[in-house]
Amino acid sequence: MSIARVAEPSGSLQEVKEWGLDREDLLQIYRNMLITRGVEERGHILYRQGKIPGSFYTGRGNEASSVGVAMAMGTDDVGTPLHRDMGVHITRGVEPWRILAQYMGRADGPTHGKDGNVHMADMNLGLVAMVSHLPAMLPVAVGCALAFRIREERRVAVAWSGEGAMARGDAHEGMNFAGVRQLPVVFICDNNQWAYSTPTHLEYAVEHLADRAAAYGFEGVVVDGTDVLAVYREAKRAIEKAREGGGPTLIENQTLRMEGHAVHDDAFYVPKELFERWAERDPIERYRTWLLDNADLTDEEEDEITGYVKKLLNDSLQRADESPQPDPSTLLDGVYATPEDLDTPHHK
Amino acid sequence: MSEKTYLQAISDGLREEMRRDKRVFVLGEDVGVYGGAFKVTLGFQEEFGPWRVLDMPLSETAIMGGATGAAMMGLRPVAEMQFADFVSCAWDHLVTVAAKQRWRAGTPVPIVLRLPSGGGFSGGPFHSQNPESSFAHIPGLKCVCPATPEDAKGLITAAIEDPNPVLFFEHKHLYRRIKGEVPDERYVTPIGKARIHAEGEDVTVITWGAMVYTAEEAAKAVDASVEIVDLRTIMPWDKQAVLDSARKTSKVLVLHEDTRTGGFGGEIAATIAEEAFEDLDAPVRRLAAPDCPVPFSPVLEKAYIPQVDDVVRALKELIEY
C-alpha cells in the first residue's frame, strides 16, 4: 500500500488555468520541452562527429519532469538540477549555445572547459552546478533553504535526485535535517527506474521512494513523470507550501530513462518491451496531444514553435562550434576565490 | 591586551565576528544548548538565538553540505566537527563540492570548518587525529593550525573573512593549557604567514600546532641556538619564511604530530631540498608520529606522539652532523 499520495493526472484547460498557467505558459512549456530534447539530440550529433571529449549524458524521457518542475519555481528560487534535468537549465534561461559549448569543453561553456557535460549551472539564474556524486547536491539544496529560513526570505530551494541517488546517506541526512527544521525545500526524485544498469528492485525495498517522506515528517507524492502538467501542479503546490512555511515535500516523478546511462551504454539490460511501453508515453508527444485536444493548438502555432526551436538550435550549434578552445593559461584561474568574487547578488 | 586561554581566544574571535556580521552563523552537534563539546560556543545561543547557533542532528554530511549551500546563498557559516576525526564523514562535501565549486563553476564557498584535533589525552584512534595533510593536498581548501591564543583569535577572524572553505584545526591539547596575551580589539592574522616563535642561529625547527611547545621545551635542553618557525597555516604555507630560516641556520628539522608518510612535513622537506640544497649543512630531518593509528593507552600514545626527548635527540644529531 502506498503511503505517499498518488497524484491525479493532468486535467482540463479550465483546471490548468486555475493553477496559474495561461496560454503563453502552456506554449512555453511545449517550446522548452522541444528545446530540451533538441539540445540533447544536437549533442548526439556532436558526439558522433568526435567533437565531445569524454562521455555524453542525456535525459531523454525526463523532459516533462524537468520542465514541469522548473516552470513551477519562482524567479528567486534556487535549484540543484542533475544530468537528466536539462529542461531545468532551458526553462531558467540558459542559452542553448552555451550548453553545446560546454559539451565540447569550449571556452564559452558555463565552466569554460573546466568541467564537462551537464556539470554546469548559472548562479545568476538560481542554479547550482552539480557534481558527479549526485546525492551530494541534496544537502547543498537544504543548505540554500537554511539560508532562506535564517534570513526569513520567501524563497524555496529545489533539490533533484534520481532513484539511484536516494540510496546514499546524503539523501537521508539532507531530508532528515530538512524535516527537523521544516525548511523551505522541495525534493524532486526522478525515478527513471535504472541506476546505470541496476533496476529498482535492487535499489530499494519500499513500494514508492516517496513513501520515505513520511519517515522524515513531511508529505510524499507520486507523480506520473511523463505528464508535464501533473508534474507542474504538484511541484507548484509543494513549492508554495514550502514558501508559506509548510516545510518540505518529496515528489517522486516516475519516468523511464529512454537511453543508456551515457552515450557509450546501449542499455542492453533494459527489456525491449519496457522501452516500447514507455515510448507510447513519450512526454513531448503526450503533451502535444493534450494541447491539441484541450487547448486547440493550431497548425500555425505548432509550425511557429517548431520553426523557432529548429532555428534556435541550428544557430546555437554554429555559435558553439565557433567558440574557442580554452586557453591553457586559464588552468589555475579560480582555484581560490578572491574577495571580489563575493561581489554577487547572493553575497551582499 | 588581556591574558586568555587558547580556547577563550577562539570563542572571543568567533563571537566578535557574529556580533559585527549578521551573515555569520554556527552549526554543529551540541553547539547550542550545551555550548559545544569543548564549550567554545558557550552562551552563543542565548546571545544569537537558535537560528544562528544551530544544534544539528548527528549528520556531518548535512552539516557540511548545509554549510556549503548556505554559503552559496551569501551566509558565512562556521561549522563545527565535534572532533576533527569526524570530518571523514564530511569529506565528500568538502572535497567534492566546496573545494572545487569556485574553480569549475565560479561560485565561491566561504565557509569555516572548526576541527578540534590532536592527541595527548588518551582519546584513542577516533578522537585524536591530525588530518591536516589530507586536506592540504586538496586544491581549493585552506588549512589553518594556530598555536598561540593571539593567533587563534586572529586566524579565526581571517578564516571567517576569507572567501574560501577554510579548515581551522584547533589543537585540543592547547585549549586550556596554553594562555597568552590577546589584543582586545579586532585584528586579522594573515593566512599564509609564518611566525618566528624563537629566533636562533644554529638549527631550525619547522612546525605548527601543539608541536611548537614541544620544540620550545626541546630547545631549552640542547646546547645550541634553535630557531622555531611556527607555520601557523599549512595551506597556503609560508615557503619564504621556511627557506629564509633554512638558509640562515643550514640545518632543518621538520616536526609534526600527524603521521610521517604523506604528512605535510614531506612537502616542506622536499621544497627545502629543491630550493635551498646549496645552503644546507645536513640533510633535512623529519620527526613525526609513526605510520599507525593514534593509540589509546597513555604509554602507547607517548610512544606515538613526538615527545620532547625525541626532539632533543633529533636536534642533537643535526647539531653534531
Précis, in short:
With 348 residues, chain A is of the alpha/beta class. Chain A contains twelve helices and eight strands.
Describe the structure.
The complex is a heterodimer of chains A (348) and B (321). Chain A contains twelve helices and eight strands. With 348 residues, chain A is of the alpha/beta class. Chain A has a domain at 5-24 and 57-89 and 117-302: Rossmann fold (3-Layer(aba) Sandwich), CATH 3.40.50.970. Chain A has a six-stranded parallel β-sheet with strand order 1-7-8-4-3-2, with helices on both faces. In chain A, β3, α7 (169-181) and β4 (185-191) form a beta-alpha-beta unit. The longest helix of chain A has 26 residues, at 23-48. Chain A starts with a strand and ends in a 26-residue tail after the last helix. The mean pLDDT of chain A is 96. Chain B is of the alpha/beta class. Chain B has two domains: 2-182, Rossmann fold; 195-320, Rossmann fold (3-Layer(aba) Sandwich), CATH 3.40.50. In chain B, 37% of the residues lie in helices and 21% in strands. Chain B is built from eleven helices and 14 strands. Chain B has helices spanning 6-20, 44-48, 60-72, 91-105, 132-136, 149-161, 211-220, 239-249, 264-275, 298-304, 308-320, and strands at 2-5, 24-28, 53-55, 76-80, 112-117, 142-144, 166-171, 179-182, 195-198, 203-207, 226-230, 233-235, 252-259, 285-289. In chain B, the strands form three sheets. A seven-stranded mixed β-sheet of chain B has the order 3-2-4-5-7-6-12, with helices on both faces. The radius of gyration of chain B is 19 Å and the shape is globular. The mean pLDDT of chain B is 97. Chains A and B meet through α6 and α7 of A and α3 and α4 of B.
